[in-house]
């Protein structure tokens, strides 16, 4: 990739310059990232190894966990490695790759969460037709569509940014390369590009969020006719998904459905959708889900038996 300007690298200002606060951040984010990796891997292994967790909901959850691992890995390792660095540099190509990766996996997660809401809507509103509508081929197409949607969104954001000239300064007031901080450094008029970024990123977040909200309104209306036991079970399942949606979509809409301006609070809020949400997903989906917890217990007991039979 060639850049026609005189900027070959960018300097990330990071989260804080306070050395004592850096030590706290290092410990926290290292623990968060390890939790993300182990927690999401545990969900993937549990679902793949359990014959009972074979419904479309768990099929989507497997890919959500995989996306969370990839999404957090785009930003978290660089953030952790740079905490004690005096000069946090990243090459132009590395910066663009980070921009592409963040929007690719973030976009895929947005579309996948929307697909999961549709799955829950069909399961609760049309239970008799659920297995017919949510066939394996349909679920696979929805997952593939999520990846393709994330790619189209990401490549558009990336191309809109890479064609801009960067003449200096090259300091990014963030802990990773995102579209708005980069647009701020461009030495040209970015009004049109800013509108295209909003249309591509902000509107996708807003439209998907409205679709999610509409699906849950339909679910709540439908649940009025269910028994109290069925209503409680359905709400318990949907509550996990709603929690994830609020934590992920709230900051995204705040960032990408506004003009190309940056605030000092942006990088602190960005932690929610790049690190906190991928870390909370395993906890939210396991602590509120008896089927997953039972499958994890069986997996743990089976591994203990195999270990005992092998080494004792």
TrEMBL record:
GO terms for molecular function: G protein-coupled receptor activity; olfactory receptor activity. GO terms for cellular component: plasma membrane. Keywords: Cell membrane, G-protein coupled receptor, Membrane, Olfaction, Receptor, Sensory transduction, Transducer, Transmembrane, Transmembrane helix. Pfam families: 7tm_4 (PF13853). It comes from the Eukaryota. It is a multi-pass membrane protein. The chain crosses the membrane at residues 26-45, 57-76, 96-118, 138-156, 190-223, 235-257, 269-287. SUPFAM superfamilies: Family A G protein-coupled receptor-like. Signal peptide: none annotated. Its main location: membrane. The keyword Iron does not apply. It is found in: Cell membrane; Membrane. InterPro entries: GPCR_Rhodpsn, GPCR_Rhodpsn_7TM, Olfact_rcpt, Olfactory_Receptors. Residues 39-285 form the G-protein coupled receptors family 1 profile domain. Belongs to the G-protein coupled receptor 1 family. This is Olfactory receptor. It comes from Salvator merianae (Argentine black and white tegu).
